[in-house]
Design brief:
This is Protein BCCIP homolog. The protein has one domain. The chain has ten helices and ten strands. Helices cover about 35% and strands about 20% of the residues.
Length: about 300
């Protein structure tokens, strides 16, 4: 379940069309009734929640390619990514902008600040980046399970592993989740088909994805690492029931993932009574991503696919 799912939002169809690499054109806009957006991807405080009660505004949210005009806004959006730990934001943002073929920002207009971002970086291609080494170290420090650390290291070192970078302001409409996921994975496929060199095409041939997100837990059980359902399926189900997801897609990715681990976020109030904020790291194969997206589309609906 997701706190965002409680928001009163409506969305009209937004059909995404295929584009060639380098094209400035993006998808058609999605018109939504949206509660006032926060300038942070963190959950609101109790006072902010009170102020938001019953307040809605109509606005158009559009998908764009990341560009240099988004630099400041993307730095602000991604600043909470490692919860105050060292992160070379300039390097990360520059890399995301330079990779124009794959990546989407959400804005109300082209010259406005980004309200959300989704992209993916090949961990082998960009292995020299300081920002990726910092993200890796952040996850290693947070995980207390040696088996999960070993699995993270194995996945991080493989050539066809992608790191999904996804942040949105707290109250983006949940109906945006399926089109955003479709935007990312469609563009990955198009890059494999359309990029001018085989080397660049191959850099987008992902077998698996590392995903990092923020969630809330209602008990310490949710902090236990999970594995792909098998003999431990019953236990894993209880762990899932103890997690409250900020974004709709995270619930389905967590449900279908190969493994996951979570760790407490220090000095980050949840903004919700009786909930603790955690960081959640997951690994999904391409097939698991497809299964999770299919379930997300069925439950939430997908404007871009007419579902």
């Amino acid at each position: 379940m997701s706190p965002a799912s409680e928001h009163k939002t409506t969305a009209q169809a937004a059909q995404k069309r295929k584009r060639k690499p380098g094209s400035e054109a993006k998808r058609k806009k999605a018109t939504v009734a949206q509660e006032r957006s926060h300038s942070s991807s963190e959950a609101p405080s109790d006072g902010e929640s009170d102020l938001l009660d019953g307040q809605t505004v109509d606005c158009d949210l559009e998908f764009y390619d990341p560009s240099t005009r988004d630099e400041t806004g993307l730095r602000d959006l991604l600043r909470p990514l490692l919860d105050g730990a060292d992160l070379d934001l300039d390097e990360l943002v520059t890399t995301l902008i330079q990779q124009a073929t794959v990546g989407t920002v959400i804005k109300t207009a082209e010259d406005e600040d980004p309200l959300g971002l989704i992209s993916v970086l090949n961990l082998e291609t960009h292995r020299q980046l300081q920002c990726l080494r910092q993200i890796r170290a952040f996850l290693q420090r947070g995980c207390s399970d040696e088996i999960q650390i070993s699995r993270l290291e194995e996945a991080w070192g493989q050539a066809r592993t992608g790191l999904v970078v996804s942040e949105r302001v707290y109250n983006c409409p949940p109906q945006l989740a399926p089109p955003l996921q479709q935007a990312l994975f469609d563009e990955i496929q198009w890059a494999v088909e359309d990029e001018p060199s085989k080397a660049v095409q191959d850099s987008f041939r992902f077998d698996q994805y590392v995903m990092i997100t923020r969630a809330f837990v209602t008990s310490s059980a949710a902090l236990q690492p999970t594995n792909k359902p098998g003999k431990k399926k019953k236990k894993a189900g209880k762990v899932l029931a103890d997690v409250v997801y900020m974004r709709p897609e995270d619930e389905y990715y967590h449900k279908h993932c190969s493994w996951s681990f979570a760790f407490a976020v220090p000095n980050r109030p949840a903004g919700y009574e009786d909930l603790d904020q955690v960081r959640l790291c997951m690994l999904l194969t391409s097939a698991q991503v497809a299964a999770a997206r299919s379930e997300l589309d069925r439950v939430v609906g997908n404007m871009a696919a007419g579902i």
